[in-house]
Write a structure and sequence with these properties.
By secondary structure, the protein is an alpha+beta fold. It has 27 helices and 22 strands. Among the domains are: 212 residues, no CATH class; 232 residues, no CATH class; 138 residues, no CATH class. Helix 11 packs antiparallel against helix 12, helix 16 packs antiparallel against helix 25 and helix 17 packs across helix 25. Keywords: Cell membrane, Membrane, Transmembrane, Transmembrane helix.
Length: 836
C-alpha cells in the first residue's frame, strides 16, 4: 500500500488535501456557528429590559391580612417559590433574592388633583440608595407612616424633608430624600419607578397625573389594612443561557408556571422571558437549519470531488492491481490493497482536519464530530467499490433500470421537500425537529433543509438526460460543415465516459455557491433598507423639548450638511368614536423630504395635497386633533407607515406641511458636523449606526459568515472537481490525439478539439447550476424567511432583495470563471498532449 502511494504520490497528495479541507470546513463551520449562537443568547438576554427578562411571581392581597403580614413572611415565600424552580431554570437564575410589595393603587396627596403617592418596600433597597438629605424611614405607628422620597421626584413635586402628607385616612412623614448609589446597577432597572415621577394621562384629560413612589418600613406596610401587591423576582443570569440549554430553560419556565398554579395562594407569573426565548429559539432553529442546508450541500460536493480523486487514483493503480491478480491475488486482496492505500491517506487527513477545527471556538455539534469520520469512511468505501468494479460484469439493463428508479426517487423527494418547505417553513420547531441541545435540526427540519441540495441534484440528473441530446444536435450541425475540428471535438464530447459524477458534483457546487452568495447579498440589501427605515434619513435628530429656529439655522449652514428638513412627530388623540383613538402625528414637507432621501431605498407617499391617515381612519370625512395644534384633519389619502416613526397599535396621521414647532430634524450630510451643534437633550441616530446595530447581532453575523465561507468552499471544490475530471481523461485524450497526429492535426487544432470535447457538458452544467442557484431564493422564500436577520418583520424581504444585482453578478462570474478556467486548462492540456 505504501509503495502504491509512493508511486502515485501526486494523486495521493491531492486526495489528502481534498479530505483535509472538507473535514476542516465540515467540522469548523458548525463550531463557529455554535459559538455565535451562544453569544447571541447572551446578547439577547442582556439587551432585554431586566423587568421583561425577569420572572415575576405576583400575589394581590385584598383587605384579608392573614397572609404576608411581615417582611419575614415575604422572604420565606421567596425561598418557597425558588424551591419550585425546575433544575434547568434554577441553574440559569441569579441566586440573589429580590422581592418587594406596595400598595395596590396610588393614594391622592393632600387632596390635590393629579398628585399621587405609592407606598413601597423593596428588599435590599438600603444597599442601593444614598440619602442626599435626611435618613431612612422608621416604622411609624397607628395611621402614621414614615417615607423616603426620590430626590428628583421631590424636586418636581415640591416635597421637602419633614413634610407631612395626608393620604386619605393615613399620614406620611417625609424622613429623607434619596438617589441611586450606583445608577448602572441592575437593581434600578428592575425598580425604575424609584428614580422618576410617573406621568400618566387618561384619555381626553388635559393634564397629566403625577405619581411618586416612596420607600417605607416593610413590616409597617405589610401589616397595614391596605390592598397590597407582592412581587418576587427571579432574574436569569446573562451568561447561563446559551444555545445548548435555551430549550430546556423555556420548558422549565412553563413548568414553573404550572407549579405555581397548584399553590394555595392565587399566584400569577408575569414575564417576557418565555417570549424572548421563543423568539431566540425560532431564529436559532432557522439558523441551524440554514447551516445544515449548506453543510449538506458541501458534504455532497466534497464527497463527489473526493470520489473523482479516488477514481483518478484507482485508474492510476489499475495496472498494479491487474498484475496482482495475474500473480494469483484474490479480488478481495486487490480491493483491500486499493482501499487500504486510500485509507492511509484519507483517515489521517480527516483526523488532521478535525483536529485543526478544534482551534475554532465553539461547542462541537454532532455534525462536526461525525462529519470528518463519515467523509473518511465514504472515501475508503468509494475506493473499494472502484477496485471491485474493475473485475465485475455489470448488467446494463438492470443498471439502467436502477438509474431510472433512483432519478425518479430524487425528483419526487426534491418536489416533496420544496412543497413542504414552502408550506411549513424551515426551523418551525414542529414535530421531529431537534432542540438546541441536539446540535442541529431534527428529522423534520433535516429533510426540509435538504430541499436545495435535492433541487440541485434533480437539476443535475435532468441535465444528464437532456445534455446528450443537445450535444447530439450540435454534433449533427458540425457534421454538415467541412471543418474537421468541430466535428472531431463534438464527436469526442458525445462519447465522453464517466460524465455523471462530474456533473453531479459541479452543478450542486455552482448552484449552492450562487444561492449562498445571492442570499448573503440579499441580506445586506435588506439590512440597508431596514437601517434607512429605522432612521428615516441619513441623520435624524430628535428632541422632546423642541428644536429652536436658531439651532436649525446653524445646522443647515454647517459645513458638511447638504440639506435639512424640519419635522414634528408626536402623539395625540384623534377625536373619533367614543373616547377617541390614540394616534401618532407626523408633520413634514413631504416634497422636501422626498428630495432629501432621493437615491435611498426609502419609499415615501406619492405627491399630492391634504393629510394622509392610516386605513383605520380613512372612512372618516374629517376629525379633530389637538397636536401639534388644534386642527381639523380632512383625509386625502392613506398611509401605512412612515420611515423612522413607530406608530405601534395607534393610528398614523401625516400632515403635508412644515410644522411651526419642530422637534425632529431629517438631515443629509456628515454626522460629525451635526453632533457639536446639538442642544442638550437631543438624540441623534444615523443610518450607519442603525446598520451597525443590525449587522452586529451575533446570529446575523454567524449566518452571513457561514454563507460566505460555505460559498467560497463550494466554489473551490467546484474548481477542483473540474480539474480532476479533466485530469482523469488525460490519458485517453492523449491516445486519441496521438492517432490524429499521424493525420496532420496541429497543436492548435488539438487544443481546440479538447476544448470542444469538454465545453458542451461543462458549459451546460455551469449555466444550469447558475440558473438553479438564482432560482432558489424566490422558490424557497415562503419557507425560508430571513427578514428577522435584516432587522425587519416577517415577510419584509422584498423581491429586489431576493436577487440583488451585485451578488447575482458575482455568482455569474463564478460560473463563468469555473467554465473559463476549465476550458483554458483543457486547451493547454490538449496542446501539450499533442506536443508530447
Amino acid at each position: 500500500m505504501i509503495r502504491l502511494l509512493g508511486v502515485h504520490k501526486g494523486v495521493a497528495a491531492l486526495l489528502a488535501t481534498l479530505v483535509f479541507g472538507a473535514a476542516l470546513v465540515v467540522s469548523a463551520l458548525p463550531r463557529m456557528v455554535e459559538s455565535s449562537l451562544d453569544a447571541a443568547a447572551r446578547s439577547i438576554i442582556g439587551a432585554a429590559p431586566p423587568g421583561t427578562a425577569s420572572l415575576t411571581v405576583q400575589y394581590s392581597r385584598g383587605f384579608d391580612l392573614r397572609p404576608m403580614r411581615t417582611t419575614a413572611d415575604v422572604a420565606g415565600a421567596d425561598t418557597a417559590w425558588r424551591a419550585l424552580l425546575p433544575t434547568a431554570l434554577r441553574m440559569a437564575a441569579d441566586p440573589a433574592p429580590l422581592f418587594d410589595f406596595s400598595a395596590s393603587s396610588p393614594i391622592l396627596i393632600n387632596n390635590q388633583a393629579h398628585r399621587y403617592l405609592t407606598l413601597k418596600w423593596v428588599s435590599g433597597a438600603d444597599r442601593h440608595v444614598r440619602y442626599v438629605e435626611g435618613g431612612p424611614p422608621g416604622p411609624g405607628s397607628g395611621t402614621r407612616f414614615e417615607v423616603a422620597v426620590p430626590a428628583v421626584a421631590a424636586s418636581e413635586m415640591s416635597i421637602r424633608t419633614g413634610d407631612t402628607l395626608r393620604l386619605g385616612d393615613l399620614t406620611a412623614k417625609v424622613t429623607g430624600l434619596f438617589e441611586p448609589a450606583r445608577p448602572a446597577d441592575r437593581f434600578w432597572a428592575l425598580e425604575p419607578e424609584l428614580t422618576y415621577v410617573i406621568h400618566h394621562r387618561v384619555p381626553l384629560a388635559t393634564e397629566d397625573d403625577l405619581i411618586v413612589t416612596a420607600l417605607t418600613d416593610g413590616d409597617r406596610l405589610a401589616g397595614a389594612e391596605l390592598p397590597m401587591i407582592f412581587r418576587w423576582l427571579v432574574t436569569p443570569a446573562q451568561g447561563r443561557v446559551g444555545a445548548g440549554n435555551a430549550a430546556d430553560v423555556l420548558a422549565a419556565t412553563e413548568e414553573f408556571d404550572r407549579r405555581l398554579g397548584r399553590q394555595d395562594l392565587e399566584l400569577t407569573l408575569s414575564t417576557g422571558f418565555d417570549r424572548i426565548l421563543r423568539e431566540y429559539l425560532d431564529r436559532l432553529a432557522v439558523t441551524r437549519a440554514l447551516i445544515t442546508v449548506f453543510l449538506s450541500g458541501l458534504a455532497v460536493v466534497c464527497l463527489g470531488t473526493t470520489a473523482l480523486a479516488v477514481l483518478l487514483f484507482a485508474g492510476r493503480v489499475r495496472g498494479d492491481l491487474l498484475l496482482m491478480r495475474a500473480r494469483g491475488a484474490s479480488l478481495a486482496r486487490a480491493v483491500l490493497t486499493c482501499g487500504g492505500a486510500v485509507a492511509l491517506v484519507a483517515v489521517p487527513a480527516a483526523a488532521a482536519g478535525q483536529l485543526a477545527a478544534g482551534f475554532v471556538p465553539g461547542a462541537p455539534t454532532a455534525f462536526a464530530r461525525l462529519g470528518p469520520a463519515a467523509l473518511a469512511v465514504g472515501t475508503v468505501a468509494i475506493a473499494c467499490a472502484a477496485a471491485a468494479a474493475r473485475r465485475s460484469t455489470g448488467r446494463r439493463s438492470a443498471n439502467a433500470l436502477r438509474r431510472i428508479v433512483l432519478e425518479i426517487l430524487v425528483l419526487v423527494l426534491a418536489v416533496a421537500s420544496v412543497q413542504l418547505l414552502r408550506t411549513g417553513g424551515l426551523g418551525t420547531g414542529g414535530p421531529g425537529t431537534g432542540g438546541p441541545g441536539a446540535g442541529g435540526p431534527g428529522a423534520g427540519d433535516a429533510f426540509l433543509a435538504s430541499a436545495p441540495v435535492l433541487l440541485a441534484l434533480a437539476a443535475a440528473l435532468a441535465l444528464l438526460r437532456a445534455g446528450p441530446a443537445l450535444i447530439h444536435l450540435a454534433f449533427r450541425a458540425a457534421a454538415r460543415r467541412a471543418a474537421a475540428v468541430p466535428f472531431l471535438g463534438l464527436a469526442a464530447a458525445r462519447a465522453v465516459p464517466g460524465a455523471a459524477l462530474p456533473v453531479l458534483t459541479l452543478l450542486p457546487a455552482v448552484a449552492l455557491a450562487a444561492y449562498g452568495m445571492v442570499t448573503a447579498g440579499g441580506l445586506e440589501e435588506a439590512q440597508r433598507q431596514a437601517a434607512w427605515e429605522r432612521t428615516g434619513a441619513e441623520i435624524r435628530v430628535e428632541r422632546a423639548q423642541g428644536i429652536a429656529p436658531e439651532t436649525l439655522e446653524q445646522i443647515a449652514r454647517a459645513p458638511g450638511v447638504r440639506a435639512v428638513v424640519p419635522a414634528a412627530v408626536g402623539t395625540t388623540v384623534a377625536e373619533v368614536g367614543f373616547g377617541g383613538r390614540p394616534a401618532t402625528v407626523v408633520a413634514v414637507d413631504l416634497d422636501a423630504y422626498r428630495r432629501l432621501v432621493a437615491g435611498s431605498p426609502l419609499h415615501l407617499p406619492p405627491p399630492g395635497t391634504g393629510a394622509l391617515v392610516s386605513p383605520d381612519l380613512s372612512a372618516m370625512r374629517s376629525f379633530d386633533i389637538g397636536w401639534p395644534a388644534r386642527t381639523t384633519v380632512t383625509p386625502a389619502g392613506t398611509v401605512d407607515a412612515m420611515p423612522g416613526v413607530r406608530a405601534g397599535d395607534g393610528a398614523l396621521i401625516v400632515l403635508r406641511a412644515a410644522p411651526e414647532q419642530v422637534n425632529t430634524l431629517l438631515i443629509a450630510g456628515d454626522p460629525g458636523a451635526v453632533r457639536p451643534l446639538l442642544p442638550s437633550g437631543a438624540h441623534m441616530t444615523t443610518v450607519a449606526g442603525a446598520l451597525a446595530e443590525i449587522t452586529g447581532m451575533p446570529l446575523t453575523k454567524a449566518l452571513t459568515t457561514a454563507l460566505r465561507v460555505a460559498a467560497a468552499a463550494l466554489a473551490a471544490y467546484a474548481l477542483a472537481a473540474v480539474a480532476i475530471a479533466l485530469t482523469g481523461g488525460a490519458a485517453r485524450r492523449a491516445e486519441d490525439l496521438g492517432l490524429l497526429r499521424a493525420l496532420g492535426l496541429t497543436r492548435r487544432q488539438a487544443g481546440l478539439v479538447t476544448v470542444l470535447e469538454a465545453a458542451p457538458l461543462l458549459v451546460l452544467t455551469a449555466v444550469a447550476g447558475l440558473a438553479a442557484g438564482l432560482a432558489m431564493p424566490a422558490l424557497l422564500r415562503p419557507g425560508i424567511d430571513l427578514s428577522a436577520y435584516a432587522g425587519g418583520r416577517y415577510g419584509a424581504l422584498t423581491a429586489t432583495a431576493l436577487l440583488p444585482v451585485l451578488p447575482c453578478a458575482v455568482a455569474g462570474a463564478l460560473a463563468a470563471g469555473v467554465a473559463a478556467v476549465a476550458l483554458v486548462g483543457a486547451y493547454l492540456g490538449g496542446s501539450r498532449g499533442h506536443a508530447g
